[in-house]
Amino acid sequence: MTITAGTLSLGGILLFVCLAVAALLFQAGGFGNGVLFDAYIWRVTRFTLLQASLSTLLSVLLAIPIARALARRARFPGRVWVLRLMALPLGLPVLVGALGLIEIWGRQGVLNTALAGLGLQQPVSIYGLFGILLAHVFFNMPLVARLFLAGLERIPSEYWRTAANLGMPPAALFRFVEWPILRGLLPGAAGLVFMLCATSFTLVLTLGGGPAASTIEVAIYQALRFDFDPQRAIALSALQIVMTGALLLVLARVATEPAQSVTGGRASMRYDADTGLSRLSDTGWILFALVFIGAPLTAVVGSGLRADLAKLAGDPTVHRALITSIAIAVGSALLCVGIAAAMIRAAGTVTAGRHAPTLARFFAGAVTASTSLVLLVPPVVLGAGWFLLLRPFGDVARFAPAIVVAINGLMALPFVHRILAPAMATHAARTDRLTASLGIRGLHRLRWIDLPPLKKPLLMAFSFAMALSLGDLGAVALFGSQDMITLPWLLYSRMGSYRTADAAGLALFLGLLCLIFTMLGTAGDRRVPEGRNT
């Protein structure tokens, strides 16, 4: 039964993705007329690669000194709250973060108001390449900094004592102690950020400012939603799949296991943190991170509180959008957690023996690979494929809720798999032999053996999948209509119609909902997730 459920889940994922890709490739009759070599497609491709490369470079360059500052100042007051603040962009709905950046950097934002007060006539424009880079750094730099910080905190204290005895200057410390650790983490972190930026949709749609700043995913959306040009959508989708697939292959080749060093187990003490210059530098970088991340979040709260929240709370459209968003979020989270648990359990069952057969190892590898299919075939590509596939059957809006639930569930699958797989593997190692010898299986095992110890990771995975689905605009952008309005779609519509006060209030509602779901998933966990990607 366990293997059957896992096999059906794996088959369902592959069928869902393959049907979408097949619809893109064949329903409109192929590429034809050299559409893949259209000048517009190459211009969009160049901009996609340019903004992703620059975003990755800026995120990494800023993350290194911030991670070093946090590693050196392991005991300064408020460090825990700085780390928690840096974790917020990772779970923040993209539209909420974009609105916060507009409040700071927009034409009527804090920065341009201050510049106008100084007599400067040319305001800073957040729309276009600059705004896209700014937003990508806002969301991705904290992630890279936390990954680097985790690596720096694993450096054994013996290294620092040896460096102090040798009298190493700061440049030598960075070259011989810190840089080898950062260099090992750099390919994976940079590749992850590049992938996220290359497949960025909501930020580019919001801050792109026009056709001159469009990525491949935005061009797919425009080709179907506004131009209804399936040929162009197919060419762009195929190009997106090829690009992301090539990048995943490169990442698989350069990925390395973190180095394990022999250490006495003592907490690391940084002997290079006592100089006045290092104190000044570290304080400056930490303050920069606080202002850069905290200012947009504070602006969202401030502008949201200034909005007419009572009016929004009584708006029937907001009620419908809220109910639709929560229904989609619950459905996609249940689907995602159920599929992930079934596949993880099935993979663990077939490889439980000491000498698992080749077919069993292949099945386990397929399960792990299938959870990352959304990275190879992003949500907009899936939505475009199913849009074309369902069009002959009538109004696509009828199928929209089910398709959005499925796409959002698949989108959260890589993250849910990372949460559940270690916990379920540890639980299986502790209980499988005993439950098998006692003959406990089926619902009795699920109720009495599995659920009590796995309740916390299951709740965490479920809440994270809900928060991720609740703030998503990618799938809804293609299928959204008057009959299916979600909070992100309503927020984007209000921003587009210059109803900024309503947009600010909706952003506050959306951010608070995601924060509540995240807190529910980590309820009772007193540990501070320092240096971990949350």
Give your account of this protein's structure.
By secondary structure, the chain is mainly α. 75% of the residues lie in helices and 0% in strands. The C terminus is likely disordered.
Low-confidence stretches: 257-267, 524-534
Counting helices, strands and paired strands, the structural category is mainly alpha
Shape: globular
- Give helix % range: over 70%
Strand content bin? under 5%
Overall strand count? 0
Distance between the termini: 33 Å
Count of DSSP helices? 22
Query: From the alpha-carbon coordinates, what is the Rg to the nearest angstrom?
Result: 24 Å
Mean of residue pLDDT values: 79
Secondary-structure element pattern, one letter each: HHHHHHHHHHHHHHHHHHHHHH
Largest sheet: number of strands, sense, barrel closure: none
Could you give a short description of this structure?
The chain is an all-alpha fold and 534 residues long. The protein has helices at residues 2-26, 39-72, 79-91, 94-105, 110-117, 129-153, 157-166, 170-198, 202-207, 216-225, 230-254, 276-306, 309-313, 316-350, 358-370, 373-376, 379-390, 400-438, 442-470, 474-479, 487-496, 500-521. The longest helix is centred in the last third of the chain and has 39 residues, at 400-438.
